[in-house]
Amino acid sequence: MESINEFLSRISDYVWGPVTIVLLVGTGLFLSLLTKFIQFRKLSLSLKLLFSKEHSDDGDITPFQALMTSLAATIGTGNIAGVASAIVAGGPGAVFWMWVSAAFGGASKYGEALLSIKYRITNEEGEKSGGPMFYIERGMKEQYGRNFKWLGLAFALFGFLASFGIGNMVQANSVSRAINESFGVNVWITGIVMALLVGAVIIGGIKNIGKVTDKVVPIMAISYIVGALIVLFMNMSSIPTAFSMIFSNAFTGKAVGGGVLGTVVRFGVARGVFSNEAGLGSAAIAHAASTNDKPVIQGLIGSLGSVIDTLIICTMTALVILVSGIVNIGTDGVMFIEESYRGAALTTYAFDIGLPVIGGYIVSLGLIFFSFSTILGWYYYGSKCLEYIFGVKAISYYKIIWVILCLSGAVFPIQIVWTFSDIFNGLMAIPNLIALVALSPIIFKMTKEFNMERLKNKLKNDEVKSA
To answer: Where are the chain's structural domains?
Structure first.
């Protein structure tokens, strides 16, 4: 087992090597420049549109539910365990590179959501189906007159395989361990209950998932953020030091036991993507189900994902860890007071220091609900990838497999699954990033037309007011 994990780790290192890092950050930077950093320039408009009631009936879930479903799939172990792992492996500076990937990733998510609406289809069940596999096939054929369905199939296959790891077993294992450590509940009991709950929700399809996530996600995110803010308020004097650690370590390459700058960047970007999935294309699958039929508007709503997920929630986690006093930077790298603390355990320890008695429960409950919602969101992603490959009828079998894997992930050790997830995360990003660059003229054209239309409407309104 150890040799298999070592072999997979080598593949993961190759997949998440310089080429993937440059593609992820480079594509986000390219789209940011192309759209004049629309993810920040139109941030207030994006928030306004998110809560707008003006949308069509041509879709399965509301724009708000679409964003909550995409956030449900991204806000999970990456926000708690992933941030801690990035700091352990890459040093505090990895947090800076998480911010970089999220800042540019907002433009990637904008492009993904825009294209998902423009090139979605209605399947034989009357549901909307969309995402990278569809805009790769339909968009690139429209733009270049050539058949790139093979590239769409590659994305769907990688996404389908990734769903079992990042979207199911890893999350189920995190839930069962958190409940066992905090409340002493046997992992088998947790696994059975969780599998039953997941099965009950996914039977109703995306509409049922949307109804659950639009309630669970806001509550769990706000609760976690409030808990983190209380810790930070109680340690205000340490916050400047925490930011200093992040910025100074970001360019020195000081990781645990030494390390090099590439390690800091790699783990920062990789965990940033694991957290917000910008560039992976997965969120586009949820946005394609939106009742909003205006691509640019859904793109603006989609761009909020990176802001909420990484720039807010992951930052809260990182700061709580850094103000706790666990992490110290010495001449030999980053030293941790307790060598045994890694992943979610490190975050729990930091919250316990900041908020004795209840701090650990905030993390445990956050991990439970974050991970549960991720299982729901990624079920939908995996089902749509499978539908693209084999058709709608295959989904009924997928539901059964999904529930079984949810149970097995909860009760069995799954160290290898983490590495497995990293590999297919990286692989599914490549077809999507190729498509985003190839279809960037369409993104630019539609963005320009949207801006012109808004300008005309503003001039008309000004004329009416002046008259």
So the answer is: 13-457
Q: What is the pLDDT of residue 258?
A: 42
pLDDT at 270: 67
38 Cα distance to chain centroid: 19
What is the per-residue pLDDT for 253?
57
CA–CA separation, 275 vs 318, rounded Å? 13
- Rounded Cα distance between 394 and 388, Å, is 10
Sign of CA dihedral 158, 387, 150, 104: negative
10 Å CB burial of residue 389 (0-12, 13-18, 19+) is middle
φ, ψ for residue 242 (rounded to 5)?
Answer: -60, -45
Show the low-confidence residues of the chain (pLDDT under 50). Answer: 255-259, 334-335, 337
| SS3 category, 277 | coil
| CA pair distance 416, 423, nearest whole angstrom | 11
pLDDT tens-digit series, residues 141-183? 999 999 999 999 999 999 999 888 878 888 888 888 878 877 8
Q: For residue 298, give the 3-state DSSP assignment.
A: helix
Fold of 13-457: Amino acid/polyamine transporter I (1.20.1740)
C-alpha torsion 200→203→206→207, nearest 10? -80
Residue among 120, 135, 227, 1 nearest 431 (CA): 135
Reading the block at residue 363, the tokens are: 């993390």
φ/ψ of residue 129, rounded to 5: -130, 130
Q: Measured between alpha carbons, how far is 285 from 114 in angstroms, rounded to an integer?
A: 11
pTM of the model: 0.86
b/e per residue 242-263 (b: at least 16 CB within 10 A):
bbebbeebbeebbbbeebebeb
Per-residue pLDDT, 259: 46
d(Cα 322, Cα 21) in Å, to the nearest integer? 25
The sign of the torsion formed by the CA atoms of 385, 386, 391, 397 equals negative
Per-residue HEC secondary structure of 138-201 comes to HHHHHHHCCCCHHHHHHHHHHHHHHHHHHHHHHHHHHHHHHHHHHHCCCHHHHHHHHHHHHHHH
CA–CA dist 144, 4 (Å, integer): 42
How far, rounded to the nearest angstrom, does the alpha carbon of residue 176 sit from its chain's CA centroid?
21
CB atoms within 10 A of CB 136: 29
Structure tokens at 128: 């909307």
